[in-house]
Amino acid sequence: MKPFRAIGCILALSSAVFFASNAAAVEVAGVRLDDSVRLANQDLRLNGAGIRSKLIFKVYVVGLYLPEKKTSTADVLAATGARRVSIVMLRDVASDEFAKAFATGIEQNTDAAERATLAPSMAKFNTMFASVAQLKEGDALQVDWLPAAGMTVQLNGKRILEPLADTPFYNAVLRIWLGNKPVDDKLKRQLLAEP
After folding, report:
1. Where in this chain does the record put each Chalcone isomerase domain (predicted)?
2. Positive or negative CA dihedral for 79, 110, 137, 126?
3. What is the pLDDT of residues 21-43, one digit of tens each?
4. CA-CA distance, 166 to 135, in Å (whole number)?
5. Which fold has domain 26-191?
6. How many CB atoms lie within 10 A of CB 170?
7. In what order do the strands lie in the sheet with 140-146?
8. Where are the domains of the chain?
9. Regarding predicted confidence, which is higher, 147 or 9?
10. How far apart are CA 82 and CA 31, in angstroms?
11. Are 173 and 122 in contact (CB under 8 A)?
12. Quick check: 192 and 47 in contact, CB under 8 A?
């Protein structure tokens, strides 16, 4: 009997290791998103992920990384510490079209008074998009909040936006996906890990 118990324990341990290693990443539309990332000396966990579709086209995969799990927009916006929105393009999109989509998402989820206070950061954000002709399939954008520096954006590992120390603007960007009028209700639920 003892040899069979030993074999059973080995199989159980092997299965646990196999499933633990596979749980280290999530795959969405063929895009691998790490279960956790390290940003600003802080471990962030994948809160949720999904696909942004427009009409019948899959545009990008997006993942939201936070220090701890959040299931409401208010909690995400109030979160302290580092945060990340990771975007991987599923098709080619002109950067001016992408910038317009971002601007529309912000406009739909902020009132006129708030938009006025966000205007300087929005101008810098638009300049960033103007510096990139096109976002291509497979391109990866990281839209990060670094507590000591502010909002930064990297494209394929290269910084394309110098830090913007503007928490309300970063939260306005988050509301593109998580606001009262998100770009996609289903995607909002996925990012907030709702059942």
Report:
1. 25-192
2. negative
3. 344 689 999 999 999 999 999 99
4. 25
5. Chalcone isomerase (3.50.70)
6. 22
7. 36-39, 42-54, 57-66, 83-89, 140-146, 150-155, 158-164
8. 26-191
9. 147
10. 23
11. no
12. yes
